[in-house]
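Continuing the series of single-chain predictions for the mutant panel. This is the parent chain; the variants come on the following pages.
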Amino acid sequence: KTFNYCRARFSNKLLTNYINFKRITIMMLSHNRVRVFRLILLTICLIQKTTVFAQIPVLGSCPNLDVVQNFDIDRYLGLWYEAEKYPFLFELAGKCITANYEKTEDEGFYSVYNKQISRITGHETGIRGSAISEKVNDTSAKLLVEFPSLPVRIHSPYWVLGTDYTSYAVVFSCTDFGGLVSGRMLWILTREQNPSVETLEKAYSILDKTKLSKAYLMRTDQTNCDYNSTSIN
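Parent structure:
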């Protein structure tokens, strides 16, 4: 009887421990599912946020890319035509897009004026901003641009990845959303309104060097550009 009693108690204890272990395991799995679900939900929200700001969403943080060193901003100033770009919300209905950079009276500050013609209305629109170096006395081509008229006033990165100052420039911008997702923008600018194939090949070589995708590039329409149309600034 004593043996049977001890065996019964031992069996009940094993059963109780098994049940407790099973409960703990289920709780841990449920907790992990919640964490995974929250992570997925956060990632989706971040991707949607990059889409709202018209950036290409990419998993992972912003890359640390090489930029032009000993950047000669005086040679960079002047008029540039947009040849190609990553999809950008504020330019989706635009054509004949240009960017003009000039010195200002304030040391280290440069004016930015982007303009385009609407393919829908035919009206010319423009937006003014400013550019400064990311760091004081930094000679690399890492700048920050700001457009005060936008709903959200932020300094966006403006990195010149490559340029010869006379024919092409490749500009990159990236916003990091918590290290999970980054929103990327890229522009190929040219001095000529209709650049040659050789000029574009120079720009493409910069993308190949930095391992940035050419698949997202969209050609900017630079035909029938009548800048005497109604202007809206």
